Amino acid sequence: MHRNSILTLASVLTFNISMAQKPNIVLILTDDMGFSDVGCYGGNFAPTPNIDKMAREGVKFTQYYSSSPICSPSRTGILTGMAPARWNITSYLHDKAGNGKCEQADFLDSSAPSIARTMKTAGYTTGHFGKWHMGGGRDVTEAPGFKAYGFDEHSSTYESPDPDPLLTATDWIWSGQDSIKRWNRTAYFVDRTLDFLKRHKGTPCYVNLWPDDVHTPWVPSQERFEKYPKGTAEEIDFKAVLDEYDHQMGRLFAGLKQLEIDENTLVVFTSDNGPMPSFKGSRSGNYRGSKASLYEGGTRLPFIVRWPGHTPEGKVDQQSVLSANDFFPSLCALAGAKMPTGFAFDGKEKSSVFLGKPSDESRTLYWEYGRNNEAFSFAKGRDRNPNLAIRDGNWKLLMNFDGTSVELYDMVNDFNETKNLALVNPKMTDKLQAKLLAWRNSMPKLPVSTK
Q: Taken in order 131, 365, 293, 438, is the CA torsion positive or negative?
């Protein structure tokens, strides 16, 4: 599609789109997928022909960031379009005592904006199939159900307010007793997604397809395992699980074609945070850091948008800087859904970027991971970073809330974050420190639990 056509399309996607024009939207959120796990981002662990084909048929972005380097807050950023710290979620959610020590809530407040709830106001039928991890599980029994966030149907894992019994024979994330075996879970979520779309064909649908692959534990089928005889046991397991995951993505796209809704379905593919383990950085594009790190390897992720006839084929956008918070306003614009009022959204409306028109806008992005060491114990050694970060245009600064461990990087010439320029460029350091601390101080705070 010509760029002018893309601009025209984006400009007419206003709130008076007819029901027949509204696209289905499938948001695929892979769990713990690194920047370079798949072939189209440089990965060579296992063939990923189906995800690579999605990139050839759509737009691939290289400067997309999650709103956190760990699961619960990163998912909160997608669902709400806001910094997860605004809802007192800054680390992964677990039991009440642990959440209290981390100075965070036990679950996402259902009064928060929800992209699913907003889509419903625009006539969409909504489904969530896969991992949730924004409340529920362990001893958190009062977390709101999926309907409170605007989902008509759901099927989820242990870390949710209503786990699917086929996936949770025991009170844990996985067991050999589960009816749906660990290696078949992505297939199960794809099946649920396609069944949902089939039953609601003719009505615009919004679907969260959020599998818990490729998160550990890696438990491949014997068939996939035997395809990869070389490497350590851990590497073989990962390759086999990645192979199966890509196969299921192929089943999803084949199913959309079979349902004859492929051309009216916008599919977004990304990850919640960086990989763990990273296999010495090879899973994160050799960027510094991994899951639970505010260096690039923890937050800079694969991001592909495909909508036949609307996104240009094979385009690579290396220019636009995007955030997970942008999903809410951008997808609402493409769906003709009016944004809710009364909230301080952190995401920006980037529908034209999603449709293939790069943006040279200078962005300011903020991150916080963990209010204290209770929530901040994963990253080690060189990957252990300060707990606050800001990217402002071409500069990135990391620091602790108390002002220690200040690091400044030139993101044009040093994306690998190897040369700390904080002492060399004190003027920029002071400017970004002030902006970052002002942002952090504007976030709500919960008291430290003594439990």
A: negative
Residue 275 near residue 32, CB atoms below 8 Å: yes
* 176 and 134 in a common domain: yes
Looking at the structure, tell me whether residues 229 and 348 fall in a common domain. Answer: yes
Residue 54, H or E segment: helix 49-56
Residue found by looking up tokens 């606050």 in the block: 388
Among all chains, which residue has been given the structure tokens 């008076």? Answer: 16
CA 165 – CA 160 distance, rounded (Å): 12
Look at residue 317 and give its three-state secondary structure. strand
* Rounded distance between C-alpha atoms, residue 251 and residue 141, angstroms: 35
Confidence of residue 449 (pLDDT cuts 50, 70, 90): low
Same domain assignment for residues 282 and 391:
no
DSSP state of 402: T
Judge whether 25 lies within some domain.
yes
Query: What pTM was computed for the model?
Result: 0.94
Q: Could you report the per-residue pLDDT of 38-52, keeping only the tens digit for each? A: 999 999 999 999 999
Tell me the per-residue pLDDT of 169-180, one tens digit each, with 9 for 90 and over: 998 999 999 999
**Which of 24, 22, 38, 18 shows the shortest CA–CA distance to 243?**
38
Q: Rounded CA gap, 347 and 207, in Å?
A: 20
